[in-house]
Amino acid sequence: METKRIWPMSNQHIFRLGILGSGKGSNAAAIADACAAGTIPARVAIVLSDVENAGILAQARERGIPARYIAPGKFRTKLDEPAEAAFLEALRAAEVDLVVLAGFMRILKGELLQAFAQKVVNIHPALLPAFPGLESWKQALDWGAKLTGVTVHFVDQGIDTGAIIAQEPVPILPGDTAESLHGRIQEVERKIYPAVVGAFARSEVSVQGRQTILTKPLNYQQERAPAVS
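-> structure tokens emitted (229 positions)
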């Protein structure tokens, strides 16, 4: 089976990120700060949101990053075709190499995934394939699991079904509440997501079928950015 390296880059190319989010933007801020510090050899070219007053837009503007709200259209859980076309147009105009979903609460199904095949990544607060969907930390608690964690994966047309890139476990402690567990998961998210994005920017990610191969171990310490409340 052929092994495909994702985005081999020349030394002259500046790797460009497009970040999509619907919430406060803590993961987006961690990635942007790591880029600004030079620990990720990339630039956040644009931040897009389907929520007009989303914190992620404010986080981007505070850092001088172009940020834009795009109305999602008539559906509750996905972008309609005109909205997805508008997102795609904005990403293409920004000459994005990798699309990073950071709390983006819409399912992508159309032309955007085709245009950025194996170039859209997401982070999920569980060890997939366990506990897909919403509020997975609550699912893990309700199930009585002893271990959960964080998964970074490629995005396909399913819900949290794309090939897994990296995972990090988070133990569930006696007395954990949904809030305490979610807080520890978020700390790990802000560590692993910049590390994975940095691996893409350095052309250290290859794909063989559903197997994702990291040609070097993730360097969490190098990519670590300050947490944003």
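The helical segments are 26-37, 55-62, 81-93, 111-115, 136-143, 178-201, 220-223.
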